[in-house]
Amino acid sequence: MPAMSIVPSTWGGRPVWAEIDLDALAHNVRLLAARASPARLYAVVKANAYGHGAVACGRAALEAGAHGLAVVCVDEAEELRRAGVEAPLLVIGNTPASDAARVVALRLRPAVGAMDLVEALSAEARRRGAEVPIHLELESGLNRHGLPPDALVALAERARALPGLRVEGLFTHFAAAEEGDQRFTRAQFEVLRETSRRLPWVPERHCSASASILLDHEMALEAVRGGLSLYGYRPAPWCGTDADLRPVMSLRARVARVSDVDRGATVGYGRTWAANRPTRVALVMCGYADGYRRSFGNRTQVLVHGRRAPVVGRVAMDMCMVDVTAVPGVAPGDVVTLIGRDGDERVDADDLATIADTISWEILAGISARVPRLYLRGGRAVEASTLVDRAPVAI
After folding, report:
1. Is 42 a catalytic residue?
2. Statement: residue 9 has pLDDT above 60
3. Is 144 labelled as part of a ligand binding site?
4. Domain presence at residue 160
5. Are residues 222 and 251 in the same domain?
6. pTM of the model
7. What's the whole-number mean pLDDT along residues 322-326?
């Protein structure tokens, strides 16, 4: 069965690429927005949209009904503004007071948990004759950013009194929403609700990320922040099993060379794999600098011609080796699927995360910037971004 990749005839660039199915992304956005309704959906596109490409995915999410986008730092927000994104941009990471001028100039909605940032934003807003919507971060149990309830209420009242600021939102981050026991999450939720009763004039509250959107509509409040599930994955296997989430990314590469090695021959650095029979080995142009981890060597499988084939030897920085003895007809130029579907077979980020003793978030976000992204609509590649041209361009 031939590889189910749409791009070999049209993509002549680097022989490793990620295919980003914007139709699948739009489907997931609509699904999450419907589950959270009437709450607004912020599509989280931090970390280059979890490795999928922030600009293209941000645009697609907004087209599909997201109210705004969420990033973790001002640089990520500026990338979106430079690309022409005009929607609300929520910056949910720690913004230093030294970035106040950029926040105001870029019309951002920063998370705030310290008075120095509040004062810097107010001063810059007055200077520019602008108004900055701010979101106050409540510390409810994650113990990262934010302020405990009493300190947050005091900060909110001080910010309310300063010119140039509008306290638009109150939010918190859950520490264990994807765990089976929801008691701690419910306790955090109650801290947020109780604090919001002390600030009835703040119009928007948000706490739900993917797990809570899928599990508990009560927690949607006025807004939610959809992250991992936008890209087609559940935060835990039991989260939202009734939700038809569709994986958005496929990672593919080409075969550069096919060699026959004798029984006893070794492959790759460290000679960690030796052939136990005459073996046909394909050199595949994807390595750990592309995000395909070194630890996958001798432990994972890829898909070639719709069949599973084991990765043999250590994954190198720029390439890996695959035993294709059982896959007839493999030749240079053939497409190998490292994440995604080929025929009836599939390898997904959850599979790789289990092997690497990590989580699917890290597998997806780890696909490096040097891997070209091809953006698909209707099963066709319509745009591409590369290390040289990060903004998507039509192809």
Report:
1. no
2. no
3. yes
4. yes
5. no
6. 0.94
7. 98
